[in-house]
Automatic annotation (TrEMBL), chain A:
Official protein name in the record: RNA polymerase sigma factor
Family matches, as CDD domains: Sigma70_r4 (cd06171)
Recorded family membership: Belongs to the sigma-70 factor family. ECF subfamily.
Keywords recorded for this protein, A-Z: DNA-binding, Sigma factor, Transcription, Transcription regulation
Gene3D superfamilies in the cross-refs: 1.10.1740.10, Winged helix-like DNA-binding domain superfamily/Winged helix DNA-binding domain
Residues of the RNA polymerase sigma-70 region domain: 29-95
NCBIfam families: PRK12517.1, sigma70-ECF
GO molecular function term, any single one: sigma factor activity
RNA polymerase sigma factor 70 region 4 type domain mapped to chain residues: 122-173
Organism: Thalassomonas actiniarum
BP GO terms, sorted: DNA-templated transcription initiation
Amino acid sequence: MIKKLFRNKSDRDQVSNNMATKQIRYEALVKALHTDLYRYAYWLCHDKQVAEDLVQETFLRAWRALDSLKDEKAAKSWLITILRRENARRFERKRLDMADYEEVTIADNQAVGSEQEIENHWLREKIAQLPEEYREPLVLQVIGGFSGDDIAKMLDLNKNTVMTRLFRARNQLKDALDNEPIQRGQYNG
Amino acid sequence: MDDLQFRRSIYADPKSRDEAMQEAIDGDPTKQQFVRDIEALDDKLAQAMKVPVPDDLYDKLILRQTLDSHRQQKRKNRIQLAMAASVAFALGLTFNFMQYSTPYSTLGEYALAHVYHEEGKFSNDDQVRVSLAALNDKMATFNGSFEQGFGELISAQFCPFQGVKSLHLVFQGKSSPVTVLIVPNHEELEFIEDFNDENFNGKTLLMHDNNVIVIGDKNEPIEQWQEDIKDNVSWSI
């Protein structure tokens, strides 16, 4: 009996130890990846508030399922998969908000800014105007640093499709930049 | 590698370089320029995509998780409590079951065990006698009565017999007390007419839904006792 009590106690120590490890793991994960994840979410939905909600929901789910993440290297793609699922759920809940890309506007809160910021802002609008199926792999490649194979796996597409979309995405943006009005930014300042 | 294919590859992934591509780049200044252009484009894209992240996002994420794990902990405690309650309940049931179930499968075995259990409580020389009225008072529970006394009744008391209220009578016998048990019929124990072990003989009679069990030592004429009881007892209803 006494032995059993002792064991219980050490079990509990073990459990709280595991909890502490889990906590540290979680915090490290949040610290390392919340920036990328937020940006990815932002490019999915173009809304700061929604992006934040998505990231919150994603990390909460990640916390609950943290034990199932065995390979830390896979953490980012794991989180992105969760986030995409959350985003899809959002559309199930509220079909009305279904993205109409054309009208998407990027909040202009940088009325006063450097040349660089003005260019960024202009470019953001161009990125936002890309069709979603082109934009998503591009964001994953540029921000996430994923390879074509990784992206294909995450988006459940074949690699050739992904590469074609990446090509078209860059091609469109390059065209847009090349035809960029010289006057750009002046109306802003 | 033709030019179109080369451009497509660079557009799709500016950082990808296999040997064929590297060769193509090295040998062609136009291609080098093209790669530089696309790399510059990618830098701009990366710059533009890095939208500002809310300063407090990290803290919010940690906070949500802390609150959530607190809630989960509470839920877990409730579940543990429920489980503990279930276990206690099951233990209670088991205990009850063990209490009221026996390893004996027949009336005879149980009756013998009962006699052994009470052995020593009564002696053949006991002078205490139970009156016929007192006996019949108790017999009323079983809807029976004795018309006249027979034998010397040392003790008459109710006993739980396999959880059933029964009457336990002890008579003076030839060399040791004779036990008569009146047990309402119930299905858990198998009826057995004759039984014995190295010390005792026993017989059972089914009378009016009651098992009347007589147990005495080897000297005792059990049949005679049974006859006496049969002659004396009357059952109402």
